[in-house]
């Protein structure tokens, strides 16, 4: 109530207001913990993803205000159970928000250096070609960190089949490498009766990539790829198994997030998931 004579808050009202402000400040200072045992891109249900955020940080608060809708249905108050998911396969922070940690954990520790998995081969067949990933742990070095790359990217290939490409995919059309890991091979095999894969001769080439966790999809548009200077110099950094041709699936990634310019004649758009 208001003191009619002085137009001031009464002591009781002042105390309640102070208590409310203290509760808000306390809530902001809490560490937010979230997890889900059903993350996107996990067809075998062997992974868990979690979020840890220091909500006392204003950048973390801004990040949460923009991204909270992505985490509807996640369990609040705890992280992934590391006794069930002992292997941390991916850990990252949003750009410019070090107070937020995003993790993806798996059920089985990766025995990267074991003899039986020294050379890992994964294949996927489709569109008259076969894609094969070859990860040779024996090539790990300070200049080519195979084990780190596999630790962070293995989940992309859980649905792929082990082994070599079957017949009739016997003709090696293309060899590519993930960005910064030249000793990991991404081979594309075709049938001798089918024309090898070549870069599009169209005026614009569109490729896309789904981020770890599946919350976003980025499209890159290359103007005149046959003559584009950036694409000629850096096209190998966008292997087709990670950056397939075409747009993001608009039925899933239906919310425009941001756009950017990578180089002259090369632009990008990032899309998110909006659930009504």
The value of Rg in angstroms is: 24 Å
Average pLDDT, all residues: 79
The chain-level structural class is alpha+beta
Tally of contiguous helical segments: 4
Overall geometric form: globular
- Strands, total number: 16
Instruction: Summarize the biggest pleated sheet.
Output: 5 strands, antiparallel
Helix content: 10-25%
What low-confidence regions span 5 or more consecutive residues with pLDDT below 50?
Answer: 1-7, 19-28, 109-116
Order of helices and strands: EEHEEHEEEEEHEEEEEHEE
Distance between the termini: 42 Å
Task: Outline the structure in words.
The chain is of the alpha+beta class and 276 residues long. Helices cover 15% and strands 34% of the residues. The strands form four sheets. It has a five-stranded antiparallel beta sheet with strand order 5-3-4-7-6. A five-stranded antiparallel beta sheet has the order 10-8-9-12-11, with no helix packed on it. A hairpin with a 7-residue loop joins strand 11 and strand 12. The relative contact order is 0.10.
Structural features:
five-stranded antiparallel sheet, disordered N terminus, 276 residues, 4 helices, alpha+beta, globular
């Amino acid at each position: 109530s208001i003191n009619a004579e002085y137009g001031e808050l009464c002591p009781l009202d002042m105390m309640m207001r102070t208590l409310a402000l203290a509760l808000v400040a306390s809530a902001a200072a809490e560490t937010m913990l979230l997890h889900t045992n059903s993350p996107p891109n996990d067809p075998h249900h062997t992974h868990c993803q979690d979020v840890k955020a220091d909500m006392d940080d204003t950048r973390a608060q801004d990040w949460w205000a923009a991204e909270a809708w992505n985490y509807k249905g996640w369990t609040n108050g705890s992280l992934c159970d590391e006794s069930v998911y002992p292997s941390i396969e991916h850990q990252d922070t949003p750009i410019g928000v070090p107070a937020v940690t995003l993790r993806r954990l798996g059920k089985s520790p990766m025995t990267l250096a074991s003899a039986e998995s020294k050379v890992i081969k994964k294949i996927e067949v489709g569109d008259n070609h076969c894609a094969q990933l070859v990860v040779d742990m024996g090539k790990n070095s300070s200049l080519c960190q195979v084990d780190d790359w596999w630790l962070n990217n293995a989940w992309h290939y859980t649905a792929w089949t082990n082994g070599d490409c079957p017949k009739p995919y016997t003709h090696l059309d293309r060899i590519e490498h993930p960005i910064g890991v030249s000793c990991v091979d991404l081979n594309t095999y075709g049938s001798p009766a089918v024309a090898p894969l070549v870069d599009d001769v169209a005026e614009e080439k569109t490729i896309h990539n789904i981020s770890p966790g599946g919350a976003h999809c980025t499209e890159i548009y290359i103007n005149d790829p046959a003559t584009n200077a950036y694409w000629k110099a850096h096209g190998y950094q966008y292997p087709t198994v990670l950056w397939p041709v075409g747009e993001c699936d608009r039925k899933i990634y239906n919310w425009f997030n941001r756009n950017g310019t990578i180089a002259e004649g090369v632009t990008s758009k990032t899309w998110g998931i909006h659930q009504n």
